[in-house]
Amino acid sequence: MMEKFDTLTSVAAPLLRANIDTDIVIPISRMVGNATRGSLGQWCFSALRYQADGSENPEFVLNRAPFRGAQILITGVNFGCGSSREAAVWALKEMGVRCLIGSSFGDIFFNNCFQNGVLPVVLDRATVESLAREVEASQGAGRISVDLNDLTVTAPSGTRHAFAVEPKRRQALLEGLDEIAITLQRAPEIAAFQAEDRRRRPWVYSL
Amino acid sequence: MHPRTQLAKIWDTHVVADLGDNAYLLHVDRHLLHDLGGSRGLLDLKQRGLSVHSPHLTFATPDHAISSAPGRVGTSAVGSDLLQALREETRAAGIRLFDINEPGQGIVHVMGPELGLSLPGCLIVCGDSHTCTHGGLGALAFGVGSSELAHVLATQTIVQRRPKAMRVSFEGTMPVGVTPKDLILRLIGEIGAAGGTGYAVEYGGSAVRALDLEGRLTICNLSIELGAKMGFVAPDDTTFNYLAGRPFAPKEAMWERAVADWRKLPSDPEAQFDRELTIDVASIAPQVTWGTSPEHVMAVDQSIPDPSAIADPSRRGGFEAALDYMGLRPNQPIIGTKVDWVFIGSCTNSRLSDLRAAAAVARGRKVAEGVRAWVVPGSEQVKRDAVAEGLDRIFLAAGFEWREPGCSMCLAANGETVPRGQRSISTSNRNFVGRQGPGARTHLASPAMAAAAAIAGAITDVRRMEIA
Is this prediction's pTM over 0.95? Predict the structure, then answer.
């Protein structure tokens, strides 16, 4: 059962650097192994969050008082590009992030978010940057609300911005649906496909 | 029938169910597992009380977390655990494993094509973003996350949204010293690391048609660095000649039937693309990255870019942060930048043709004082072929280290890292912050350029070297 997502009101941390890749979100050394889930949150963004001696980097937005513990990130272009590691989403979620608002996301990361009850919201770049300016100006006091029911983001100023989510993905997040269980209901269709395909493209199956 | 793209043809062949809103349930023809996520996926499935739907279409090999040291010494405890778990779980599920020291073992994206497991027109997935590599054979191949991986194991299908179609035509003849790696890096420089997001990219044009299959795999490998989950080349005689006789490729009458089918895969002449662009190959120089995204790329004979010339503040800030991380100053030539490490390997550039190109530069020369240079073949088969033609001896005589096949220092999942603050020139695919180790500074380049830098002890223009 996937964790549901419907509405969220939170401090939002602006992290507008372009091309933040999933290696930055969670470094490989912290995710290798079958037992690392649950310990990833502390290493999320470690290259930005900690200095070489292991101490916190006071400049990094998530180390600054109002933004620490933000459940929403306002992200720069192409956030989550690079490696397919789903541990990037797990690390964000373990750190408390449930929603990202950005103008574009890496394709694989974007899919991985929906598998884990994390909502990536796509808005145009000017709107994303205006949201970042508002939360910076209010030093985190201004909260952002995200509503997956009516598909709106409400800025600290009260301005509402509509966003789109593919209907099936929206339903899956709202209801916490499990994709594997849904597809398994189509087992007869899959079997029929393979039987027909085996006649059409036998070389695919004759290994 | 209206003209269709290769993307449309392969996509339509795999639709098990149209789910509406541009989402489809697609059949997966080949699922490749590796040591980093393979056993976890199989264990997740077991925990849910599910079994593997089509183990005969699933293949596994260790590559990420194993040591590349001669004799595999130095595999970490966690790496050993992952290898052991992969052995146990694949055996229990009836999945064919290509284990270390066995022909077939290697980086998943090297061994799949090499064994003839990856075929034109196939839909191939793997829990690794560089699965796009297999597109070089004319397959639709892409990386998936852990949840999607488990879905494929349980159902042999995947839910996907159909991407838009982009065609990139590389036209002209590659100048001497310019390689497939330079072509694709140039493209990323032109349209950016998100330029291909939401697209499947078809690479064509006279330069791609003239390329050997390994070069096409290199180009497709970097599709994901363009933001495109999948990239491919139309299959042709080059493809069929490469595949003929490979261990898992179809044989005899089945081969003839398959080739006849594969000849229908290329995009129809009148097919429409959502985006088209053409790159003039003759104008491309050897490329090297200067920053922390593959889009931070330049011709080796140019100067490092100046952030102050960039109007967009976010982009300017990104350039400044990248230069700071890389320890570079704007407006300086990149040639002459001293390197500490050289890495020749990875799913991008570790095949026999890559090692030949690097060996041609290394032959009769010496690695510069103070430089550590590694050659990590992409697979056990590449290693054996290279040894058979004496490439290992050329590298060893020149002072390179000759290692065991795997992903190694491309992503340092096995603990093989470039030390903090040190500079590496690497034939891999990502120059991300910390990718080759915390604080490591990575410059991406072709095998010939990396070998040239090993000899010079600094980034250099391989076109200035005499190569036999």
Answer: yes
